[in-house]
Specification:
Distance between the termini: 55 Å
Strand content: under 5%
Oligomer: single chain
Shape: globular
Number of helices: 12
Radius of gyration: 20 Å
Order of helices and strands: HHHHHHHHHHHH
Structural class: mainly alpha
Helix content: over 70%
Length: about 240
């Protein structure tokens, strides 16, 4: 590692220890640095240190995301997205959550680069916090899952097959999400079946290259379970 990179890492560590200040860029740099020092494929060791590094990283990321959410919550109108979709009355949390989630997926906010785009950052934060607001009122477990889903993650995909499985699994998940919202609007049983199959296949394919508890797989199973319920948006959207 170059002297410049070493100095940058030391600067980050010093700032965290002395001031408790860090951002997502700091965490990512520190995680990459420590991963290279502890990953079993690079060190030949058992990987216990790498697991601890990864767990600490994920906890720090979650705290950072929770802080960002809390910082913006008080400033947002959580009915704004609904009004923009033409809904001005009072609706159940499930309905409101689905409307916000549909906007989230339609705009591709699962893509972190797009989500953090400066010109639309405040707008994107509104949508994400609207999802969290209504998720808290409908399903607290999903709210926690959605927060995890929005974290940037590093998967140790070491082979072409693993990378292909990951991207195919993610693609099938997104296709399932499209079908999910179509079913909520139309109530077509065949649409629900296709979406359910997509989610099942996505979780299966992702299990070949990531852990079973990765957020995409868990969210796929959540969506699949939601498909067992009556559609929430038929006749209204």
């Amino acid at each position: 590692m170059s002297t410049l990179k070493n100095e940058k890492i030391q600067e980050i560590i010093t700032r965290i220890l002395t001031k408790g200040e860090f951002d997502s860029g700091d965490l990512n740099r520190l995680y990459r640095f420590l991963s290279k020092q502890t990953h079993p494929d690079l060190t030949g060791k058992d990987g216990e240190s790498f697991i601890r590094v990864r767990e600490a990283y994920l906890k720090a990321r979650a705290k950072l995301e929770n802080f960002k959410t809390a910082r913006f919550k008080g400033d947002f109108d959580f009915n704004r997205i609904l009004r923009e979709e033409g809904f001005h009355g009072s609706y159940p949390p499930r309905f409101c959550l689905y409307i916000a989630l549909n906007r989230y997926f339609t705009l591709g906010l699962y893509n972190r680069k797009l989500r953090d785009s400066s010109p639309l950052l405040k707008r994107n934060e509104l949508i994400i916090n609207t999802v969290i607001y209504w998720a808290d009122r409908y399903d607290a477990d999903f709210s926690a899952l959605f927060r995890q889903f929005n974290l940037k993650r590093f998967y140790a995909l070491s082979t072409t097959r693993e990378m292909r499985n990951y991207y195919n699994g993610k693609r099938m998940f997104l296709e399932g999400a499209t079908g999910f919202f179509n079913y909520q609007k139309t109530g077509r049983v065949t649409t629900a079946k296709v979406a359910r199959d997509k989610f099942t296949l996505a979780a299966s394919v992702l299990s070949l290259c990531t852990s079973p508890d990765n957020p995409i797989s868990v969210m796929a199973l959540w969506f699949r379970n939601e498909l067992e319920k009556e559609p929430a948006l038929t006749g209204l959207v």
